[in-house]
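Dataset card, provenance and construction

Sequences and ligand SMILES were collected as paired inputs. For each pair, a complete structure of the chain with the small molecule in place was predicted and serialized as structure tokens. The example below shows a pair involving 2-oxoglutaric acid. Curators did not alter the output after generation; any descriptive sentences attached to a record were derived from the structure itself.
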Amino acid sequence: MQLTDEELRSFAADGYLILRGFFAPDLMQLLYEIAKSDKAMDEATERRDAEGAISRIRLSNDLHDDVYSAFARSARIVAACEQLLGDEVYHFHHKMMLKEPRVGGAWEWHQDFGYWYAQQYVLFPDMISASIAVDAATRQNGCMQVIRGSHRCGRLDHGTAGEQVGADLEKVEALLGFYELEHDHVELEQGDMLLFHCNLLHRSDRNRADDPRWSLICCYNTRHNDKYRKVEGGHPAYAPLERWPDERLAAIGERDRPVPA
Ligand SMILES: O=C(O)CCC(=O)C(=O)O
């Protein structure tokens, strides 16, 4: 897995990079079938947006013997993240983001580093997330939106917005208005992957479509940015990450594929 110079340049300038068809359709079908029939998704945590609409999130700080963790161990994702951040990365957490048809709530403008800096004892914005489209993501079902290049302005102050944490909106508006940064909608097909820098401002709208929008987001921290305080709970401190080829992800997917009724 080798990113091109153009991909590296584009991530440095924009704070995000879309890799189309990153995972093959057969492998995505396994993840899709397992997730959609997984009873654990019924226990996902609910988060209300500022208008009270609910998004659900199933987050894991640990790696387990399941298909979600297998994706988080993907050698190709990890290699891409290490090229973009210039250091070894480790698993920080992964999460299934579940936006149900018609009801799935919005995520307010925020930077992930706004949360992680405040709560996770890390000080350098050398962290990254890989969002894999389990369902296609469209404007209608509340795809992710980003402010292109906003990672370059550094971390903004964050306050609360509903049950979420949101960035200072005056500054968000200044980035879009005064500084004329572009506001992009990231539409994805199943199997596409969005890599985004932890200081990239992003949000997503409520799902107003009849189809769900589920994604698997794998988050990584760099080794040089290990947690300076090791506390119980929260996202983990550095531990070497075992990286797996796609064949191993597929083997776990085949093993756990639901048996048709
Ligand atoms: O995928 C989305 O709709 C939002 C995800 C998000 O805000 C996040 O992972 O921080």
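Derived descriptions for this record:
Residues 73 and 242 are 6 Å apart (CA to CA).
The first helix runs from residue 5 to 14.
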